TrEMBL record, chain A:
Native organism: Thiocapsa imhoffii
Membrane topology term: Multi-pass membrane protein
GO biological-process terms attached to the record: amino acid transport
Keyword flag Aminoacyl-tRNA synthetase: no
Taxonomic lineage: Bacteria, Pseudomonadati, Pseudomonadota, Gammaproteobacteria, Chromatiales
Protein name according to UniProt: Urea ABC transporter permease subunit UrtB
CDD domains in alphabetical order: TM_PBP1_LivH_like
Main localization, broad class: membrane
Protein family: Belongs to the binding-protein-dependent transport system permease family. LivHM subfamily.
Spans traversing the lipid bilayer: 255-278, 310-330, 342-360, 394-411, 478-502, 508-527
From TrEMBL, chain B:
InterPro entries per record: ABC_urea-bd_UrtA, Peripla_BP_I
Entry keyword annotation includes Signal: yes
Cross-referenced Pfam families: Peripla_BP_5
Organism of derivation: Thiocapsa imhoffii
Signal peptide boundaries: 1-28
Top-level taxonomy: Bacteria, Pseudomonadati, Pseudomonadota, Gammaproteobacteria, Chromatiales
UniProt KW Amino-acid biosynthesis keyword: no
Gene3D superfamilies per record: 3.40.50.2300
Gene encoding the protein: urtA
UniProt keyword terms in alphabetical order: Signal
Name of the protein this chain belongs to: Urea ABC transporter substrate-binding protein
UniProtKB/TrEMBL annotation, chain C:
SUPFAM superfamilies named among the record's database cross-references: P-loop containing nucleoside triphosphate hydrolases
One GO cellular component, as annotated: plasma membrane
InterPro entries according to UniProt: ABC_AA/LPS_Transport, ABC_transporter-like_ATP-bd, ABC_transptr_urea_ATP-bd_UrtD, BCA_ABC_TP_C, P-loop_NTPase
Residues of the ABC transporter domain: 41-281
Pfam families: ABC_tran (PF00005), BCA_ABC_TP_C (PF12399)
Protein name: Urea ABC transporter ATP-binding protein UrtD
Keyword terms, alphabetized: ATP-binding, Nucleotide-binding, Transport
GO molecular function annotations of the record: ATP binding; ATP hydrolysis activity
Superkingdom per UniProt: Bacteria
Originating gene: urtD
From TrEMBL, chain D:
Positions of transmembrane segments: 12-33, 53-86, 129-152, 159-177, 207-228, 255-275, 295-319, 331-355
GO cellular component: plasma membrane
Protein name, entry field: Urea ABC transporter permease subunit UrtC
Membrane topology of the entry: Multi-pass membrane protein
Subcellular location: Cell inner membrane
């Protein structure tokens, strides 16, 4: 792709590469090797020693060879393998069972190969950094804006004059806004180093209001050295301005963290709000139902290893059904004999939770299992350089709300919901009016269990999936439901989010543990004030 | 309520099972030598400890294939302390008094070791403890085959400092004694190396902490202030997955802020989606990926024994292997399994590490170990990126802590003391008796 | 000071009364029941509303010492709510309720009110099912009901006699060792009345005593209540007109939370408003 | 005499106490007199095991008092047990003196290693046995009193109360895990040397502790009997069955609840204090909410509202645990779980219920059931 570089820019870049090259040669000869040619370097790439590999990378980067960029990117991405037979470098992409090989240089197909025949070229952190710089230099002019962006980010704050020059040229051409930001920022940073006062001032002026950490660090560096009073207080002002904006963003971030934690609590508790809140069953196996949901996700992913990105859409209904059926099973076999004796449901379901845990230990494994994140779940949404919301959290927050409102609709708008509420309020009456309370109970409990399962899918994306994971959520769930007011879905939502935010607000100055303790104490005292939670349920149904 | 002790029957059955498993060629009339196994098979620690139980069973089986010890077969006695600390003490007493075992291999967490320690000292038993730990201890009756802080933490920090040029440090750990001690040692060590206070951030979280958003955000900020930053993680097992996931999601990659972990090994990785971890580091004394004939053989026997070649090997397993070899040698040398004789005999004995080099039992009941730094790869294995030139001797008492820098442990005459104060030339505390 | 400001000040002064400042500074026992006017219960200008619905609406109601008063009225007339206010279960939004002339019931808690000698029998009979009849009465017996005295309490001779006396009054003497849970509906009603008597109350509030009773049982109950008249003041709330006629001297008709009519059974029954209310339904 | 009155119509209790007495007499003899190797010899291991069970039994009795008779399902009694344990543990730590590994004259090892220079105020006085014992009773008592005062005054009942007690013990667990708290963090307190000058590792000391536990259990049992057979006990049952009614006949329900709840908490504290020297360690794990739930289950299995049932339940379940964890490590959780489910389904009155039913079968004159029916 670098073939399309306009001439004058090509000159700059190649001269930059030449410099890198000289640099490399000295380094390499220091390493005691004589290799300078591109081809020889290729051989060195498959050398076990990281030192030799680094030298080789420098050479390749500097060679100006059009194939270099692609090659280094492949290396960085961990697709570059060496074939044991002829030590040829090959690009590997996994195919059914085995590997599909392409020539690393001309990309020509080399057919299938077994895992035995090729060996991956391992790289370490140093090489990653080195590769990124080299690739950046090679791809700053790439037609793909995403690539240019990465390159620009990489070059950010690099004092090397040649790099600055390259950036300056790119800036003239560049039309992508984000890339421009980075390039101008780099230049501004360069300005700070400039001997001329007005240039430094220009740099400061450009930097003020920029939220990039590099900007603030640049100013700090400047202030540590700067003598000129004018420049100093300009820089001071710029920095305080930046700090204020950053702290605002941090506040926003904390709020998001709180809401996200809250959404997790809501998800974990919402199923309980039904089994416990509506049916009055103290369901100690709730945590294990969540666990079942999580394990369903795991199994689904095992079943469709090449479709991880879609696995969740399969997992959610699957988990709902599996956990739901499990719930119905529990209800039919045990709980239905215990209605009106809530405290005894606690004992029975606790027994069930033990059984379910051990069941997972024996059938699947005592170890945790690896549930993967779909690509669209990883990474974060960059609002601005100082504020990024992680996608996984964002989606789970949204998901929690969806589940909540879905439940609300089911309970308030559907026939089932009507019957559920009828049975919850007055079993005998409902029966006499022809509601098949047995069926309703089973379905209600199944619903609650199913929702717990769905929560499990979400949690599997955040934390580890193992036999004990249920235990981690059961207590918090009860807290949320009780705090919100038993039998009131809105209560659960508000309670969950409140506790989440409260927790996160306290964490910075109290620390994670103390924050949790304080929240618990708060709940205890709150319940003394309002013995029936935030939104107490009216009428006789409430008298437990 | 007065009843014949139930456990006997139990252990007989367990013992028989093992005896059957270990069909010894030398089916001698000699009474077997009993090897106690004290690892949790249920509860939270089962995740890690079950493997170690199997390891010991394997070692016993192998030894019996070689014709046992002193012409007598070995017999493993397995109990389940169920991750319950008081129960550890109870079961230890059971092994030593009811089953009269000659040696015990067991424990993982510090608290479980602390819980059984008085029992072993009271009944003068032998315990081989295979897990890296916080040090600050040396008992006449315990042999520490895992790493002491100076065999894991300090070399790791040296690596980050010298190789990766790290200038700012985040010491993140779960709030219990191992991270606390390790971090205090590291803090002292870093300050001695001229690291300023504001360049060290220490953070503790509860067990199984699952919401890392704020902490990772703080780490990110801490790392974005221009200086190269690294995280030294003593975070305990379960909390690691959400931690690494959060790191990855907030865009902290191994080359901006590398994390070096002391409690994440092959076994743990097998239960994690390794994508977000690639490039992060771990410091151990053993990696499954190390290319060494002994290691290859060990892995092969392990897969043969556990009948599943997907299973990984890890550092504590090697520690048990070394401990077992040394114990066998000591018994042969002493010609008896008598505790005091073995204690006297074992000091100074050597055996092969699985990663090359030799492990020697030191007078302070710790051993010499090589230290390896590995980078996590997609396949859940580690690529060794650095290792010490020669083995590091385990140090019972850290040189960087106020209370203990003057203390040494030496179980050879004339000192015969686990915490000997070199300044006052006195043996402190109860071990004096 | 301007009149607008006065009311808050009054309230403040009231709330600052030294003898009312701290609950522990006065016990209910030192409150003297004053029936010098011959009236034992004053309810004046009471208001209660449950989210919008006016259950009690400017209710004025007086009971003389020793009289047997019947209260009738259609459903939702506020009969039970009135009882709740008297026994401290419900706090009114406005108005006063005093026991005798001096004792302000609205200041006191349920146990304190009970200790003053106002006993109540619920619509639905509630006795302690896992205790015997005898024990039920023993528990109800007047006396020091604080924790430690209760812990060390022993039955004295005359207390036993008292219990047996009541047992005979309510006609359960031969069932004294039976679990209350095993009693018939009627027997439970009587036992509950018996428990009221054990507290030898000044004022009994009896809510629907004959609901679901056979005719014989009704007659027994009627006798029982009549036998109380004079010694105690009794307020009976009842739907069953025949029963009311059989015991009532004075009848009060409640309607929509206020007194609609009051007088002898005949007067009340011929009162057009009453007829309208009852036939209106 | 009093004893007679307390045990009237309490055949289960009589039997239980008889067995207890028998064990208390036999075990020491079989342990000390009968030589090892003799099949009748009871090992010290078994003695400590029994001692542990007895403390659990006492704890169960305490729980049964509030749950069975007062209808308060406390999921926080492990907290009181743990606090009692810590009080005793602190005393034992102080007894170590300068025999700790760092040889510090006063500070326990974990403080030395946290670089603490002097003893925090709340560790003062725990070098005196009487003080420690006092605290083992008072601290849980006060906590229960404060908590109960708030809860009962504002009429927090039923499930809400249960969950709150759970929150209480959960908060305590998290707090004690923190090393800054000064209770040894996750490692807790351990490596005890001696108690009242007697070497803890000494057989006779263990026997002594065992006997102490047996005696305390007996006394605790009788104390609870005294309460439940008194009028207060009947008031308690009345509250359990019809709280509002009890209020209307003039009892201060909240006071009654508070008194009994506090007493029960103190009992739990004592149990904890006896537990620690016998198992040799106390750590925050004891506060885990699951423990609380489990001990409620002991009571349920033994038979709610029958004090001796609680004792039976505690001993049986724990014996079962000791046995199963060894017998089939992989499957014992199945067994335990199934046990809980089946008992709640088929034995609502627990094992004690079975007994009384059996008795009623072959007895002509039916003895009055003081074991009230189980109502939520």
């Amino acid at each position: 792709m670098p073939t399309r570089i306009p001439l004058h820019r090509g000159i700059w870049i190649s001269s930059l590469l030449v410099l890198l090259c000289l640099f490399a040669v000295t380094r390499v000869s220091a390493e005691g090797s004589e290799t300078v040619s591109f081809e020889a370097a290729l051989i060195d790439l498959s050398d076990p020693s990281f030192a030799v590999k680094q030298a080789a990378v420098d050479v390749i980067a500097a060679s100006g060879d059009p194939r270099a960029a692609a090659l280094l990117q492949a290396l960085a991405a961990g697709q570059l393998y060496v074939r044991d037979a002829d030590r040829a470098l090959v690009l590997v992409s996994p195919s059914a069972g085995d590997y599909r090989l392409r020539d690393a240089l001309d990309g020509s197909e080399l057919g299938e190969a077994s895992r035995r025949e090729v060996k991956k070229i391992a790289i370490n952190n140093r090489m990653r950094t080195q590769l990124r710089t080299a690739i950046a230099a090679l791809t700053l002019a790439s037609p793909d804006p995403a690539v240019r962006l990465r390159a620009a980010q990489q070059m950010l704050g690099d004092p090397n004059p040649l790099v600055i020059q390259a950036i300056r040229d790119q800036l003239e051409e560049e039309e992508n806004r984000q890339v421009r930001d980075y390039l101008t920022l780099s230049l501004a940073l360069a300005d700070l180093q400039d001997p001329a006062t007005e240039i430094r001032l220009r740099g400061i002026d450009r930097l003020s209001g920029s939220l990039y950490p590099a900007a603030r660090n640049g100013l700090n560096r400047l202030l540590s050295a700067e003598t000129d009073p004018e420049v100093r207080d300009a820089a001071e002002r710029a920095r305080t301005h930046i700090e204020r904006m950053r702290s605002l963003n941090e506040a926003a971030e904390t709020l998001f963290f709180g809401l996200s934690l809250g959404s997790v609590l809501v998800l974990a508790a919402i199923g309980l709000a039904i089994t416990f809140g509506v049916m009055g069953v103290i369901n100690m196996a709730h945590g294990e139902l969540i666990m079942i949901g999580a394990y369903t996700t795991y199994l689904v992913q095992q079943a469709m290893p090449h479709w991880i990105d879609y696995s969740l859409f399969v997992a959610i209904p699957a988990a709902f059904i599996v956990a739901g059926l499990m719930g119905i099973l529990i209800e039919r076999t045990v709980i239905r004999f215990l209605y009106g004796r809530p405290l005894e449901t606690l004992l029975a379901t606790f027994g069930i939770s033990l059984i379910l845990q051990q069941l997972v230990r024996t059938t699947i494994s005592a170890q945790n299992v690896a549930v993967q994140n779909p690509s669209w779940m990883s990474g974060s949404l960059q609002i601005n350089p100082a504020l990024a919301l992680t996608y996984s959290r964002l989606y789970i927050l949204i998901f929690a709300l969806l589940v909540f409102f879905a439940l609300l609709v089911i309970l308030k708008r559907t026939a089932l919901g009507l019957q559920v509420r009828a049975v919850a309020q007055n079993r005998a009456m409902a029966r006499s009016m022809g509601v098949r309370s047995g069926r309703v109970d089973a379905l209600t409990f199944g619903l609650g269990a199913g929702v717990a399962g769905v929560a499990g899918v979400a949690l599997s994306q955040l934390t580890n999936v193992g036999p004990n994971m249920g235990q981690a959520y059961i207590i918090d769930s009860f807290m949320v439901v009780v705090f919100g007011g038993v039998g009131n879905l809105w209560g659960t939502l508000v309670a969950g989010l409140t506790l989440g935010v409260a927790n996160k607000l306290m964490e910075p100055w109290a620390g994670a543990v103390l924050a949790k303790i304080l929240v618990l104490v708060f709940i205890i005292l709150f319940i003394q004030k309002r013995p029936r939670g935030l939104f107490p349920q009216r009428g006789r149904a409430a008298d437990g | 309520m007065s009843k014949p002790n139930p456990i006997k029957t139990t252990l007989l059955s367990a013992a028989c099972a093992v005896a059957l498993m270990a069909l010894t060629p030398a089916q001698s009339a000699e009474p077997p030598i009993k090897v106690g196994v004290l690892h949790s098979l249920s509860g939270t620690m089962a995740i890690s400890e079950t493997t170690l139980k199997d390891t010991v069973l394997m070692l016993v089986e192998e030894q019996n294939k070689k014709g046992g010890l002193l012409g007598r077969p070995l017999e493993a006695v397995v109990v389940d302390p169920a991750s319950d600390w008081p129960l550890f003490a109870e079961k230890a007493r059971e092994l030593l008094t009811q089953d009269k075992v000659d040696v015990v291999f067991g424990c993982w967490t510090s608290v479980s070791r602390k819980s059984v320690l008085p029992v072993f000292e009271e009944l003068n038993g032998l315990l081989f403890y295979p897990v890296q730990y916080e040090g600050e201890e040396s008992s006449k009756n315990v042999f520490y085959t895992g790493a002491a802080p100076n065999q894991q933490a300090i070399p790791a920090v040296d690596y980050l400092k010298d190789e990766l040029g790290i200038e700012r440090w985040v010491l993140a750990g779960t709030d219990y004694v191992y991270p606390r001690t390790t971090n205090r040692i590291l803090e002292a060590y870093l300050k001695q190396n001229g690291v300023a206070d504001e360049d060290i951030m220490i953070d503790y979280t509860p067990f199984g902490h699952s919401d890392w958003q704020s902490i990772v955000a703080r780490i990110k900020r801490f790392g974005s202030e221009g200086k190269k930053t690294a995280v030294v993680s003593t975070i305990n097992g379960d909390a690691n997955v959400p931690f690494y996931k959060e790191l990855a999601n907030q865009g902290v990659t191994a080359d901006d802020i590398p994390v070096v972990a002391f409690s994440v090994g092959e076994e743990e990785l097998s239960g994690i989606d390794t994508k977000p971890l690639v490039g992060h580091l771990a410091a151990w004394n053993y990696f499954m990926s190390v290319d060494d004939p002994n290691n290859a053989e060990f892995i092969e026997t392990w897969h043969g024994f556990i009948k599943n070649d997907k299973r990984v090997t890890n550092d504590p397993m090697e520690a048990h292997k070394i401990g077992f070899d040394l114990w066998v040698q000591a018994v042969e040398k002493a010609g008896t399994t008598d505790t005091d004789a073995v204690q006297a005999a074992i000091i100074g004995l050597e055996t092969q590490n699985l990663t090359g080099g030799t492990a020697r039992m030191l007078p302070n009941h710790h051993i010499t170990k090589p230290v390896l730094i590995g980078e996590i790869q997609e396949d859940g294995q580690f690529a060794v990126v650095w290792q010490t030139d020669e083995e590091v001797p385990g140090d019972a008492w850290s040189d960087y802590l106020e209370g203990s820098k003057d203390l040494i442990a030496d179980w050879t005459p004339p000192i015969m003391c686990g915490n000997f104060n070199t300044v006052t030339q006195t043996c402190l505390g109860s071990e004096a008796e | 000071m301007n009149p607008a400001a006065r009311k808050p000040v009054e309230q403040l002064r009231e709330s600052m009364r030294r003898d009312r400042q701290w609950r522990f500074m006065y016990s209910t026992l030192d409150l003297e029941l004053d029936v010098s006017q011959g009236v034992i219960l004053y309810l004046e200008g009471l208001h209660v509303s449950f989210d919008g619905f006016k259950a009690i609406n400017d209710l004025n109601f007086y009971v003389n010492a020793g009289e047997l008063r019947c209260v009738i009225g259609p459903n939702g007339a506020g009969k039970t709510t009135m009882m709740d206010i008297i026994t401290g279960k419900t706090r009114p939004d406005g108005g006063t309720a005093s026991f005798g002339r001096s004792i302000d019931l609205l200041q006191l808690s349920e146990p304190e009110i009970a200790a003053l000698g106002i006993g109540r029998k619920f619509q639905k009979p509630t006795v302690f099912e896992s205790h015997t009849v005898f024990q039920n009465l023993e528990l109800a017996m007047a006396g020091d009901k604080r924790v430690f005295p209760t812990l060390f309490a022993r039955l004295t001779g005359e207390q036993r006699d008292r219990i047996h006396e009541v047992l005979t009054t309510i006609g359960l003497q031969e069932l004294l060792d039976q679990d209350a849970g095993a009693l018939s509906h009627g027997q439970k009603q009587w036992l509950e009345i018996g428990m009221l008597l054990m507290q030898d109350p000044q004022l009994l509030l009896v809510d629907e005593p004959v609901a679901g009773m056979t005719h014989q049982e009704m007659d027994r109950t009627a006798e029982l209540l009549l036998s109380l008249e004079g010694r105690h003041s009794v307020v009976v709330v009842e739907h069953d007109m025949d029963f009311v006629r059989s015991i009532a001297k004075r009848v009060t008709v409640l309607h929509q939370g206020a007194v609609l009519a009051e007088g002898s059974m005949d007067e009340v029954q011929n009162d057009p408003r009453v007829i309208e209310v009852y036939l209106g339904e | 005499m009093v004893l007679g009155r307390l045990l009237r119509d309490d055949r289960g209790g009589q039997a239980m106490l008889a067995v207890l007495l028998l064990v208390a007499v036999l075990v020491p003899i079989l342990n000390l007199v009968v030589p090892e190797g003799n099949p009748w010899h009871v090992s010290t291991y078994t003695v400590t095991l029994l001692g542990k069970y007895l403390t659990y039994a006492l704890l169960a009795v305490a729980v049964d008092l509030v749950w069975g008779y007062l209808g308060i399902l406390s999921l926080g009694h492990a907290a009181f047990f743990g606090l009692g344990g810590y009080a005793m543990g602190m005393y034992l730590m102080r007894q170590i003196g300068d025999r700790g590994v760092y040889g510090h004259p006063v500070l326990p090892d974990f403080m030395v290693f946290l670089n603490w220079t002097e003893l925090p105020w709340f560790w003062q006085g725990f070098d005196m046995f009487w003080f420690a014992v006092l605290m083992a009773i008072l601290v849980p008592g006060v906590l229960a009193f404060v908590f109960g005062y708030l809860a009962f005054r504002s009429r927090v009942t039923g499930v809400y109360l249960s969950i709150m007690t759970q929150a209480l013990t959960y908060a305590l667990m998290l707090a004690f895990f923190r090393n800054e708290m000064g209770f040894g963090g996750n490692n807790g307190l351990t490596d005890f040397k001696d108690i009242l000058g007697f070497d803890l590792t000494n057989d006779t000391t263990r026997i002594g502790l065992f006997l102490a536990s047996a005696l305390t259990l007996a006394l605790g049992y009788l104390a609870c009997r005294f309460i439940v057979t008194s009028r207060l006990g009947r008031v308690a049952v009345a509250i359990r069955d019809a709280e509002a009614r009890t209020r209307f006949i003039g009892y201060r329900v909240d006071h009654v609840k508070l008194a009994i709840f506090t007493f029960s908490a103190m009992l739990a504290g004592i149990a904890g204090a006896l537990y620690v020297p016998q198992v040799g360690i106390i750590n925050p794990g004891e506060f885990s909410p699951l423990n609380s739930i489990e001990l409620v289950i002991w009571v349920a299995i033994g038979g709610r509202a029958t004090l001796y049932g609680a004792v039976i339940g505690a001993v049986l379940v724990n014996y079962g645990k000791t046995y199963f964890t060894g017998a089939f490590p992989e499957a014992w959780l199945f067994a335990l779980g199934a046990l809980f489910v089946l008992v709640t389904l088929f034995l609502p009155k627990g094992i004690a219920g079975l007994f009384s039913q059996a008795v009623t079968w072959w007895r002509v004159r039916r003895p009055r059931e003081r074991t009230a029916r189980v109502t939520p």
